[in-house]
Amino acid sequence: MQSSVLIIFFVHIVSGLNIDYQITTMNTMIDRLIEKMTLEEKIGQLNLISIPYNSTRPIASKNEIKDIENGLVGGVFNSYTPDVLCKIQKLAVKSTRLHIPLIFGLDVIHGHRTIFPIPLGISCSWDMTWIERSAQVAAQEASADGLHWTFSPMVDIARDPRWGRIAEGAGEDAYLGSQIAKVMVKGYQGNDLAKNNTIMACVKHFALYGAVEGGREYNTVDMSRIRMYQDYLPPYHAAVDAGVGSVMTAFNEINGIPASGSKWLVDDLLRGQWGFSGLVITDYMAINEMIVHGIGDLKHVSALALKSGVDMDMVSNAFLDTLNTLLKKGVITQRQIDTACRKVLEAKYKLGLFDDPYRYCDNTRAQTEILTDENRFVAKEVAKRSIVLLKNAHQTLPLKRQGTIALIGPLVDDQRNVLGTWSAAGNKTESVSVITGIRNLVGGQVNIVYEKGANIIDDIDILKLVNAKGGDIELDKRSPEMLIKQAVRKAKIADVIVAVLGESQAMSGEAASRSDIGLPKNQQKLLKALVETGKPIVLVLMNGRPLTLLWESKHVDAILETWFAGTEAGNAIAEVLFGDYNPSGKLTASFPWSVGQIPVYYNHKNTGRPYNGTGLGIDRSRYLDIPNDPLYPFGYGLSYTTFKYGPLKVNKRNFIGDNEILTVHLSILNSGLYGGEETVQLYIHDPIASVTRAVKELKNFQKIFLKPKELKQVSFNVTVNDLKFYNSALKYIWETGEFIIYVGPNSHDVQSISIHWSM
């Protein structure tokens, strides 16, 4: 035993010495390089440009080519494939005086060529193993396609589904968002950035971007410091603790200063308090946009960004155009330029680009590691786990493998929209539509009839906007009335209707805010006509945000939320519909009753006049026309089986000091006929504290599989770290008092037990 301990101790010592040696070697190499660099070359490293993708050659302007040859570009994004990127890299390495390689990036948000569900969908799996695996596959494919860097994960907490970019994140909860941030970084970066199958991650948008006012893209953010620290900053911090290589600043302002110019945010918080030592880049044109914010002219905002701790300017050329002059005038210092340049060079060093600038230019990997059968299998497994069953009246699902099924809707035979927003190098010809997936699974067992029934959207004004950002929607030549009439005719001969409705992928994501987040009006008309047939209806949704589904929840028999499920969408949806996979997804963002409820989220605070949902509630904090609670709460998701929760038990009720551990345990019984997974969720409420606290906060969860009639014991350990919060002085503390422990299948349907913990 003693010898084993000594061996472990020795391994840790050697490992630490090796890391120190690597850092010393890197610093020595970069010190020597910086000494040789001219001022212009240093500033050039801070310049990140966009060169659009072309399958045979880089589409670069003459000025961009000239800048690369002169060492005035540090990195390029929006191009990929080894052939294209090798041409650009050779231009930099062979033409520049010091042969410094470029870094290549792309928005690989939820897969590269093999597309996974949108991040909001992936988060609904609550499965950290599969989430990490999705990032590993994305990194493997992106690196095989010549890339070094992804602008992911996006970890912005979002409580307003009007905001289109809610699709890119993990929903409304900081704890769950933090767990996902950590595994995404690990999946992308592995344990060694220099390996040719890993890529550098970039956490974004730092910070608070998910709290834009009115859910409107690029809008203002204004919140208290306590709310920042408690509810919005933790996922960024988690990514930093996980070793993320880079951070992207947000478009929004914080405390009246745009994020890219905020010294408090970047230098004091990110680098000072959190100890981040990696690369900081701006979002697209963010430095220039500070001028429109009203902060100053180009020279002023460029100086502000550099002084705040920004290292790399995305696209705007602000650093390239101003830093030389600003240095001569004494507005900025040589040390500030050198520090930013060093961060760029360090990222390239860690990626192994100084050892071999062409290490990612391997056409063999591109041909053998992209869109493989294994990668598609992983995509299908993740997609199945991301699907959330919202309603299943009369055991409508799973579908029987007999009779006639009517597939109705504009998204039934659609290969583009299943890929979702930010689908990187995804190709719609390689994706599986719903009708193809169903035919693949049960084509020889059931009779399938199909009608489109409606366009995705008929509103011409909105259609123009959606198509301008890649919607690719073509209106059917048939009139809306004829589309519905023909769909109803097919529906009437079926035993069951599967209506596949929702959004275009371009109706969510960046610059895709919506004030009305229900199904488009023309699709609602179609659904109402289908309901009038009296046939059982399964509503399969494709969308990038929580929707308002009050009418739908009352009138259809089953609702399956599939998000935009990626390359294998059709196969995954088919397996869930027919019971080959029992849905296990749980919502990570609340579905509101109506837009007027927004923002609605589970971990809100009490008011001085809370409404408990019973009685008239006169002079209480409530709506006159709808409940306070969402239609479908955070953590909610049904199964084809039923899980019965036994009573909560604890090891004791009174605890003292920092070192004790509360053990919460209960039994879970699968009382149904199907094997299935259940996500058991633990929440804590601190009813009396020095600052007001949320009514409950997620602190832990476990995903377990139970066979039919199987009983399992589930236990959670709770420590004082789970009781901590930020007080008015922004100290992360816990306080003596009562704590209420909640456990349940979602944030609403919980049982509780009270304990006391004192200092």
From TrEMBL:
Organism domain of life: Eukaryota
Main location: periplasm
Reactions performed catalytically: Hydrolysis of terminal, non-reducing beta-D-glucosyl residues with release of beta-D-glucose
Pfam families found in the cross-reference section: Fn3-like, Glyco_hydro_3, Glyco_hydro_3_C
Residues in Fibronectin type III-like domain copies: 678-747
Alphabetical list of InterPro entries matching this protein: Cellulose_Degrad_GH3, Fn3-like, GH, Glyco_hydro_3_AS, Glyco_hydro_3_C, Glyco_hydro_3_C_sf, Glyco_hydro_3_N, Glyco_hydro_3_N_sf
Enzyme class (EC, first level): hydrolase
Gene Ontology BP term (one): glucan catabolic process
GO MF annotation terms: beta-glucosidase activity
Leader peptide range in chain numbering: 1-16
Localization annotation: Periplasm
Key words, A-Z: Glycosidase, Hydrolase, Periplasm, Signal
EC code(s) of this entry: 3.2.1.21
Family according to the record: Belongs to the glycosyl hydrolase 3 family.
Protein name as catalogued: Periplasmic beta-glucosidase
Organism: Didymodactylos carnosus
Lineage of source species: Eukaryota, Metazoa, Spiralia, Gnathifera, Rotifera
